[in-house]
Amino acid sequence: MKLNNILKLRIFLFSLLGLIILFLIYQAVVPFGKITYKGNACGNSFFISKLKPTDRTSGECQNIITGDPVYFNLNTQRTFDSAKVTVNYKTSDQNSIIELGVLADAQKHYLLKPLENKILDNLNWSTLSENGIYLLQKKQKYEDVSKFLDNIKEIPRDKIATYYYNLPNANEIPNYGNYLASSKAFPSDSIPALRGAYQFYTYLERGNLDFIFKFKKLDNDKNEAGSIDVYYKNNLIKQGDISANSPIELTMENQPTGFYKIAVNTSDNIITEKIKSTQRIISFINKVQLAKTPEPGLITMTTDSSEIFIRTVNPDSLQKIKIGNKILNITETYKQFSQITNSAPADIKLAKDGVEIAGDGLFSFSAEALYNPSYKKINKNANLENVDYIITKYAPNNSTDLWKTKTVEFDLKNSFRYEGAYGFIISIPGLLADDEIDDFIELGNIEIKLKGRTLFEKVLSFKF
Predict the structure, then answer these.
(1) Which one of 139, 161, 192, 196 has the largest count of C-beta atoms within 10 Å of its C-beta?
(2) What 3-state class would DSSP assign to 145?
């Protein structure tokens, strides 16, 4: 009888072990292509990691976000096509915008989507919706979104703002001949050395698009390269490889009039020593990283950003930077400093390079080289005094609930997965960990519903 009980216990334990193994295999393989992972900031989940870095979080579980941005990973044993992320949180009601994003590429660009925008939530404007698109009007003129879009060319561009909705960029500069005559020629060789990846707009009035790039490696032992991509009307029209051994000539003959976007995709190991071109307009998008050089001299920039963010990892680059008529004192390495601009455009003057400068607009190295072909975008410093229309895919919701639950969806097919993990970011623009303002975001539960190919579909896709 005793032997029988021991045998039954062993069978039970082996069965339990077998079930656990099968469950873990199921969790890893996900044979039916769908699975849901849940995490709590105070719990330990293998799949959803804790928030990092910890110097931007607080609380017993490190679940209170006190600085922007913070990150977490989703660890999976296989790839998926899409993710539906549901976040439960409460706020101190002192931050206007909360965004969630997924890592898009190795250059650490994130595809962001809105969780909350109090500027739009609290706006007492007329609101229309159509097929997931929302039109906010200061004074209602259009009865549906389609009529607004059909007549958009008749509306002055400065009267329209966007938020997570892409309206077509301007394709021409009105009276470009007069623009050329009234502006000084911009010497492109005044662009200082840049580090890592960057993007810029340029403009061509029919003819040849021509650029010469000169690159070098900081560490020759690394086999890193990259690419130069050229876009016209958001379509990739040319792509070339980066070489650090010789100048790269980018020439495209007989191109149509319009704005072109040029993206240099590479790592921080690559320095762009020179950019030469006959184009008048070279406007860098959102960010430039000035490389550290022995004798930089005075650097002058112009931006239409409403707020400037500057940081450096170089002790020699600590300095006072003039932004408009204000001084921003960069006193620490690895810390991000910010300054709201008084007006757009604003001048930036630096005595030293080796800093990263970012913002919500464009940057150029002369006032004549700056031209923004896109519509005004809503950010935490948005001035809506002269704006009559806002178009967005964000659904305004003036909820008074203490704890809020929001869901956003991501296409994972074009995201970047590193060492078995998808990277996510929570961004709260303006939330600083080391200021004296008691503002925060407290994170509760995170639920991630994943969808991908079934095991059967994967087997069928194999080529024997």
Answers:
(1) 161
(2) helix
Q: What pLDDT is stored for residue 406 in this prediction?
A: 92
Contacts of 132 (CB under 8 A, 6+ apart): 393
222 CB neighbour count, 10 Å cutoff: 11
| DSSP tag of 41 | T
Q: Which amino acid belongs to residue 385?
A: E
Q: What pLDDT score does 7 carry?
A: 64
Helix or strand (DSSP H, E) at 457: helix 455-461
Q: What is the pLDDT of residues 47-62, one digit of tens each?
A: 898 889 988 888 888 8
Contact (CB, 8 A) for 102 and 81: no
Instruction: Tell me how far apart the alpha carbons of residues 290 and 353 are, in angstroms, rounded to a whole number.
Output: 6
Angle, CA of 56, 61 and 62, to the nearest 5°: 5
Contact 360, 307 (CB under 8 A): yes
CA dihedral 130, 132, 138, 142 (to 10 degrees): -20
**Cα 257 from Cα 201, distance rounded (Å):** 13
C-beta neighbour count of 192 within 10 angstroms = 20
- Residue 9 confidence (pLDDT): 60
User: Quick one: pLDDT at residue 42?
Assistant: 75
Question: Could you tell me the maximum CA-CA distance found in the chain, to the nearest angstrom?
Answer: 104
Number of residues assigned to the chain = 464
Paired tokens of 80: 């998926």
